[in-house]
Write a structure and sequence with these properties.
single chain; 254 residues; alpha/beta; 7-stranded mixed beta sheet; two-stranded antiparallel sheet; 22% strand
Amino acid sequence: MQQVDLFGNTIIYNEPRTVVSGYRIYDAEQKRRTVRNDLPELYPDLPEKKYDIIYADPPWDYGGKMQFDKSGRKDINVNWQKDIFISAANFKYPTLKINELKKIPLFEIAKDDCLLFMWVTNPHLALGIELGQAWGFEYRTVAFVWDKMNHNPGQYTMSYCELCLVFKRGKIPTPRGSRNEKQLIRVPRGEHSEKPLEALRAIERMFPTQDRIELFARHKPENWDVWGLDVREEFEEKPQEKQNERYYYAAASI
């Protein structure tokens, strides 16, 4: 039976409703957008070749941490009428934890005298040095400092730069090329995690005659071997061209 107030108006009681949190929304979205490795193993075999120069951009894992903006605040995005903005590295490519990266047997493709150039994000600096050492290299210095000319918010200061470390195994490969390459690279950032081509070109000038490979590559530069999800077609078997030769493709990209 309907109830009325003193003025004859029907009293309508609000039905109880479930309060949806921002976490409930973006957690489901995160699970939907996370990119996972579609290969049966963590990584495939590395090339059956040894290199003087290894250039790597590991797909660092952030433990599920995401970037947000104010759309994730319920006092601003009332009743979640607008989509909540979230972004994460593993929305773009499969990431690997440090213990998984250590399992890649990099020593199998490194010559006795070899340099490893490796990109690290600032929060992963200590892990980057740890990884290089686990792969059998000695940390030497910062090879390149990339000023992206655009900042990201941080807990302490606004972040503009990313580092490329250099590690050494044995001696520096010879013969040497250019000896006057600049450490600072000032190039606007491009696609997510895409590294400046200037760094790769500088390495080419420094070591123009050496055997070189790029790990976790996005494309195949001329005169480089590559290993990465984005370049797996470079290593898939092509029986019409190479019936007795084994090809390899990659497990993870940056």
